[in-house]
Design the sequence.
């Protein structure tokens, strides 16, 4: 399924491995076409987990970590949902990862029994962990890895099954709604509490869960809410692949009663509401025992609507411009720029951390900005001639026109500023965020999107004002990238990132997550291979931009403009004299 594994010692020409080149159109491809990214979807199931709850079973969650390339530090990649009351969870939420044949991607799966609403994992019971590599999963038979969970001495912690499936490029989603009639009664008091579970078949004949409906209480004739699912998740773009639908009666203790099942396919479902999409729910055990058994009820498809998901690149092709602004921290805590210990040290032989971060991110974003003119700002410095402190000054010295030409122009202005301003303080982010927000507020039609890169050495002085600025900016076409340089603790930056807990100010929550934070030290390559480590930095800080961009466009109902027709040179008609 994943192509042939490369035999040891026989590198393939071009180094792309045995996988088809399937770089997804919606991705920033950091190293242009030299590394084709294949997307793989990881599904996680566990069997016989430890039971940490006294009166019921554990409520497990799986947390996936990946290992940073430089310092081997584990960083959280994502979490599944919590499943109540079970020791054998089949998690619905998947992990979608880039798979590169030539890279070793170390993974760690941690399991917890969730005891409260807290996102802090230390507040929950640890159930064990499993270490492997992405290549190990993909390379296992049927791309299905089964491994023991370890981590609690003297205890058998159960097993974890991780399955990888290469994702096709299908970009359609479907909106479906189902109802059921005359389902079997399973509850002693009252009727059943039915819900549906959708599973897609795999190439080895097994099934992977891809959607669960909500539970409709106390009825044998439920109507479930319409739900949206990508065609990729439902059948991986294979319209004839079997889709199995199981019907259950929900029980509080997690031992849901099986009512019955039926099978269908995307092609059958796409006929919409018709006599072909009324399914008999069959319970094989009952059918085997009872001669007069007909069915355990019917499930009917009420509606089926196909929506094509638009990608980040559809907007770029339609002419949307990405405007890139840089803001650099000139506070005194960075150290004297003439000293080698300073984060702003101007080394004639190599870039400092600020220069490296600026170049890594800027060189990719500048491809999406047609005029290549970037406003470059500084904050936290005393300016000549009078020594006033500014939290929003133009690096090129021209407040009316802070634009620099290309990333090289920004670098030049940065070095010029270091020679003319005095590093001071405090570290205030709000003024530069509000600066970009003013521009973003003037063009909300989807023709422009703004990205602000803040490079800082850390401890923020105006946290409350910054949070308010971010909450206000979350309604605008903009994203904020923060790169933390130096050895400081960056706890406040993690809070601004909003990946775990959505950021709020004065009781108002951000409309969407617009901040991405990374510590620069995670990307310093001890071997001195700055090219690769900076490509990693750029990839990680830019990874969330397409989704943040799309979330703004979706909420506002902005569709991409059609791509302009390809240029065809005019045909010159030769005039012939008679």
Sequence:
């Amino acid at each position: 399924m994943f192509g042939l594994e490369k035999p040891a010692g026989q590198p393939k020409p071009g180094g792309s491995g045995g996988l088809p080149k399937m770089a997804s159109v919606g991705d920033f491809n950091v190293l242009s076409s030299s590394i084709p990214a294949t997307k793989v979807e990881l599904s996680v199931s566990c069997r016989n987990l430890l039971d940490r709850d006294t009166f019921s079973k554990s409520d497990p969650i799986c947390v996936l970590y990946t290992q940073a390339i430089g310092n081997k530090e584990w960083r959280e990649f994502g979490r599944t949902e919590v499943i109540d009351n079970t020791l054998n969870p089949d998690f619905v939420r998947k992990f979608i990862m880039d798979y590169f044949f030539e890279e070793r991607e170390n993974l760690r799966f941690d399991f917890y029994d969730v005891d409260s609403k807290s996102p802090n994992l230390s507040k929950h019971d640890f159930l064990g962990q499993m270490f492997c590599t992405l290549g190990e999963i993909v390379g296992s038979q049927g791309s299905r890895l089964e491994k023991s969970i370890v981590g609690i001495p003297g205890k058998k912690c159960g097993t974890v099954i991780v399955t990888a499936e290469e994702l096709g490029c299908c970009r359609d989603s479907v909106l479906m709604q189902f109802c059921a009639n005359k389902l079997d009664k399973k509850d002693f008091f009252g009727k059943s509490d039915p819900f549906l579970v959708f599973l897609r078949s795999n190439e080895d004949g097994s099934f992977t869960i891809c959607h669960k409906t909500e539970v409709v209480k106390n009825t044998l004739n439920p109507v479930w809410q319409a739900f949206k699912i990508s065609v990729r998740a439902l059948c991986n773009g294979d319209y004839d692949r079997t889709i199995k639908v199981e019907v259950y009666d929900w029980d509080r203790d997690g031992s849901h009663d099986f009512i019955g099942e039926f099978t269908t396919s995307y092609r059958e479902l796409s006929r919409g509401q018709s006599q072909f999409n009324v399914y008999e729910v069959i319970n094989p055990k009952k059918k085997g025992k009872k001669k007069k058994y007909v069915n355990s009820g019917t499930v009917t498809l009420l509606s089926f609507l196909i929506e094509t998901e638009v990608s980040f690149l559809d907007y770029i092709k339609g002419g949307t411009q990405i405007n890139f602004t840089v803001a650099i921290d000139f506070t005194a805590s960075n150290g004297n720029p003439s000293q080698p210990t300073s984060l702003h040290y101007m080394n004639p032989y190599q870039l400092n951390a600020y220069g490296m971060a600026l170049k890594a991110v800027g060189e990719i974003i500048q491809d999406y900005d047609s005029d290549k003119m970037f406003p470059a700002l500084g904050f936290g410095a005393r300016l000549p001639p009078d020594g006033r402190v500014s939290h929003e000054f133009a690096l090129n010295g021209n407040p009316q026109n802070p634009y620099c030409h290309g990333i090289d122009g920004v670098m030049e202005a940065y070095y010029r500023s270091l020679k003319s301003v005095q590093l001071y303080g405090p570290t205030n982010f709000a003024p530069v965020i509000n600066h970009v927000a003013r521009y973003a507020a003037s063009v909300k039609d989807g023709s422009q999107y703004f990205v602000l890169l803040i490079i800082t050495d850390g401890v923020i002085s105006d946290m409350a004002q910054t949070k308010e600025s971010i909450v206000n900016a979350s309604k605008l076409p903009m994203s904020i990238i923060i790169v933390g340089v130096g050895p400081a603790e960056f706890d406040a930056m993690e809070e601004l990132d909003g990946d775990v807990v959505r950021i709020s100010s004065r009781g108002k929550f951000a409309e969407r997550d617009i901040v991405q934070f990374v510590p620069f030290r995670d990307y310093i390559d001890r071997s001195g291979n700055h090219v690769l480590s900076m490509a990693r930095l750029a990839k990680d800080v830019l990874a969330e931009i397409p989704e943040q961009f799309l979330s703004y466009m979706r909420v506002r109902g902005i569709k991409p403009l059609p791509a302009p027709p390809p240029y065809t040179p005019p045909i010159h008609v030769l005039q012939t004299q008679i």
Q: What stands out?
A: The chain has twelve helices and 28 strands. The two ends are 68 Å apart (CA to CA).
